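Collaborator request, handled under Task 6.
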Amino acid sequence: MFSFCRRLAYAPPVTVTISDHARVRTLVLDRPEALNAFDEALYDATTEALRAAADDPDVAVVLLTGAGRAFSAGTDLLEMHRMSTDPTFQRGKHGFLGLIDALVDFPKPLIVAVNGLGLGIGATILGFADLAFMASTARLKCPFTSLGVAPEAASSYLLPRLVGRQDAAWMLLSAEWISAQEALAMGLVWRVCEPDDLLAEARRHAELLARRPIASLVAVKRTMTEPLREGIAAARARENAAFADLMGGPANLEALTAFAEGREPDFTGM
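Structure tokens returned to the collaborator:
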């Protein structure tokens, strides 16, 4: 069986590690020094990797995970602060919206293995996972209200469908941590594994799927996801408008300034 591994560097030191085995392409978010937080370069790298996997006739399934102790700490808040305050900030080629476009359009099975903490897009990406595995020690958080912003990635539409309205409301409103067992109980993830078993178990299921005809896998996914596309597009439009209204506002600037200064934000009167 053909297998290889390569490391693609898009903007040093940001990398996505890519390996192929048995028609499964594994993508590892590899910015462990920043807990795999997405800056513009990592958004671009992940978008390009997903698009390449979608177009590769030898790839049947994609498995996405993170390097180190985090899956992803979400959007890089230090860069987000610069983006909000520096009019000369240069955005990436694809950015956050490009990654979500790639996830919406990804035609093949996407398996996510949450190996550690997942915040923001590190949690909401599960709305696009066809199967999600999670380490028993991992935790998830949707920190939008603690940042003074709105939901993202159609999570206001996908999460209620995935876990029910009240669990989704708690995740999106509270900005509190969700444990692996809570995520399993609410249906946010499909399996919880011991940390040392996570990738092996996720790969085992990915390779089982990859033995099926790719055209069949694509057809099954399309018939399941096509009815959701209109709702996803509408939710993204609502979320993006709300996010644009709130980003750079008093609560958001207070949250980002507090993060940069290493203190808790003070939302008194907001």
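The cover message to the collaborator said: "The first strand starts at residue 3 and ends at 11. The longest helix spans residues 229-246. Please let us know whether this matches your experimental observations."
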